[in-house]
Write a sequence for this structure.
């Protein structure tokens, strides 16, 4: 990452299970929070990648009067796909705030965020879901062998349209989600991810979802870098979608 944002630790840790990875790092701004960001990190669902990928964003949002809940979860390479899916559901249930909630997922975290939101019952869903360079079409990601077989590694086999859980796990196959979404990807990112975002946005709009599409200059990590113009554009889109009237980055 290119961010120069100083790292700061969370104010508290919320645990939603007994395993060490089942926790959420919570940062509460000094001013009254205007909204709450639930952050879901990526890393192609592999255990070496952790929630610290989202720490610069969490710290930056906190300085803009946004509370952040940065989610850690058990990765499927060590614990299986069902554990990862269950952890995201449990983490989303654990978020208890009075402000509007925005669920933001990056890369593989985009898949987890949108799938988690799609699984939530009516009445408990967030105000907005955001995919940042998300792997949001598992069928095609598996077909293209993205991340050196990341989808098959996570699922334990290749994606299959005959598997109800595989279909449920792929946001592109869950449309419409029924809540507003921002689908963003840098123009300098992996062409497949950019194509996934464009295709998903068109399909979601056709299905009746309210979708804001953001495709601007930047790469896979600019989109989570709090000093990058690409992230500033996404943040402005979130503020606009929430109707806060504040669009500065």
């Amino acid at each position: 990452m290119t961010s120069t944002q100083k790292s700061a630790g969370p104010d508290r840790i919320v645990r939603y299970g007994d395993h060490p990875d089942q926790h959420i790092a919570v940062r509460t701004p000094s001013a009254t929070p205007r909204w709450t960001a639930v952050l879901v990190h990526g890393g192609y669902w592999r255990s070496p990648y952790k929630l610290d990928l989202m720490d610069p964003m969490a710290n930056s949002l906190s300085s803009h009067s946004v509370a952040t809940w940065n989610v850690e979860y058990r990765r499927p390479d060590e614990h299986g796909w069902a554990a990862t899916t269950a952890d995201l559901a449990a983490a989303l249930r654990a978020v208890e705030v009075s402000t509007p909630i925005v669920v933001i997922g990056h890369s593989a975290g985009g898949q987890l965020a949108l799938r988690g939101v799609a699984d939530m019952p009516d009445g408990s869903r967030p105000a907005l879901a955001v995919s940042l360079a998300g792997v949001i079409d598992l069928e095609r990601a598996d077909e293209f062998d993205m991340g050196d077989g990341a989808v098959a590694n996570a699922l334990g086999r290749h994606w299959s349209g005959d598997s109800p859980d595989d279909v449920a796990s792929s946001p592109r196959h869950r449309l419409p989600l029924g809540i507003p979404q921002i689908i963003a990807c840098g123009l300098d990112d992996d062409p497949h991810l950019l194509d996934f975002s464009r295709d998903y946005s068109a399909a979601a709009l056709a299905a009746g979802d309210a979708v804001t599409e953001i495709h601007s200059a930047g790469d896979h990590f600019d989109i989570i870098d709090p000093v990058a113009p690409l992230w500033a554009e996404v943040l402005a889109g979130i503020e606009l979608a929430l109707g806060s009237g504040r669009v500065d980055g």
About this structure: The chain has a mean pLDDT of 94. The beta strands are 12-15, 23-27, 35-40, 66-71, 101-106, 128-132, 181-186, 211-216.
